[in-house]
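LAB NOTEBOOK - FOLDING QUEUE
OPERATOR: T.R.
BATCH SIZE: 2
PURPOSE: Compare the predicted structure-token outputs for two unrelated chains run back to back under identical settings.
PRIORITY: normal
REVIEWER: second-year student, initials M.K.

ITEM 1
FIELD SEQUENCE / FIELD STRUCTURE:
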Amino acid sequence: AVYSLHQQKYLKSRTYQMFEPYLDPAGTGEVLYNTYGEAATTFDITNTGTSYNNMQTRIQEQVTLRYARTFGQHGVNAFVMFHNDKYSIPDQRLGLVTRGFLGRAAYDWNRKAYVSFDCSYMGKSVYNPDHNMGFFPSLSAAYVFFNDKDADSKVNYLKLRASTGLIGKADLSTASNYWMYEQYYASSSVGPKFDWTGTSGKKGMYESYMANPDAQWEVLHRTNVGIDASFFGNRLSFTVDAFYDNRTKILVSTNLPDYYGILSDKNINDGKVCNYGIEGSITWSDHIGDFWYTVT
């Protein structure tokens, strides 16, 4: 189990000009000034000192259970973890909480065949409490056909691997408001007045942000098939990967027509992006006498 608390103080400072008055030496009786320093237009904030204008606080908790054992040619290992993370800045940011479980169950046979199942069940406080949890499983497998360390072997290593699974992402940069599922109203400085106090009109209220109670995790479905190989005493090696990434439920800002009477955009999980392709690398590593070189 792990518990950590991180707090950081900030010293807020500003430099001002100093003025020293004196009488005009010419005897005119005029008061003159000596000026020292320069007037700063902004505050300097550093992380030293005992005075501070705000404090960042991050509390992290982790509890992990692990199991690993070998039965002859069979190997089994697994773990499950509870994770809790809360980050806040008093008077500036409410607590951003990430909480959930992670787990893995893996099996290998004779260090040749590998199978692994991973998953996470995570929640984030920016989403509607009714559905702020997301489940993201993945499955991977690999088989090692050759693993020969003999320098005279033509084929030293050959492994085929494949994986597929879901990855969740909470997009906080696109959202124009921290609590996306709640409706916010603000006082308008323009538009009609509803009453008057003396010569000042009372401001009206407007929907400053269109709430989206259905906002949720962005999901990436990633599939990968690859080959790792080395030949001729491990002098020649290459890796090839074919991948397919399909991102859905991407949080995007939609432009609302002016006649809606809303001055901000609405964020919805409507974006989609698909990437696929093949990538690889080839490396030759050898030596001439005591001079070693590598070409990739």
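ITEM 2
FIELD SEQUENCE / FIELD STRUCTURE:
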Amino acid sequence: YGYATTTDFQNKEGTFGALGEYLVYNFNRDPTLSKDSARDSTYSYRNASSTGDMTTSDVVAGQVGDGLDFDGTNDTISTIRDIAVIDTADTLSGCIWNKPDTQTTDDVLFEKDNGSGGGFSFFRDDTGAITGRTDMFNIRMEDQPTAAQASIEAATDSGTSGVMRHVCFAYKEADDTGLRLYINGVEDANSPTSTSAITSIDAGTTAFVIGSSAAFDGILDDVRLWFRFLDAMDVLTIYNNTKSSTVFWTFGSETTQGSPGMTQFHYRFRNDDGSETGATNFLAEDTAISGLF
């Protein structure tokens, strides 16, 4: 700023790319717009549009600013272009804040699932087909072409209505502990599970959809997707940052938060080869840093 001839060291691809968030939807736009009613905040530019009967009044208070109120009938958000790179991903992670209005149906959070073998689905499950657990979250990966499945059905009552929760999954193909599920920053007791039978989640040209055919009834906010396997500290950091972003910031993996009135920072430097060095922690008074943001 103020020095036009300086070298530009921005690295958008490195921030929002293979090692960073691939897409982020915060739902702060009018869903009735003919296109780009959901803007991707990352370098990927994977904008999406609404379908169904969404109106301007469906923009409501969410967890991170505004969210969208889905009607449980036909409201969805769908990418304008196919995200084909999901089909070839050998690692994939996703997170979303959600507040269900009902708990008597299966409600999709987001998915790319062709319905005939291939893809993934992240949803609030009324009754688990495998365990019989009720009112919980479910992440299911399906192999293409064998239709073999790997899934985690979370603890009973982990997905009851009327509560805003943060849920995340992390997937790695053909791995003994390759599927993990987290709720409010904590790994579910039924996680992890094996993905040894999953070698491809290719769903073809099926769109990436938020809400989907099993339409979600309630508020959704802050959808995020990565092409890497998030670890427990990654998930806890994301949860803390979005749960109360006014009092917690972090750079790199999370450590512990500071005492009231103080904010703890943690940062690391990432080298060109992907390795990390220079992990450092420091505390600062909230009043001292408030002017920085």
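REVIEWER COMMENT (ITEM 2): The mean pLDDT is 83.
FOLLOW-UP: none requested
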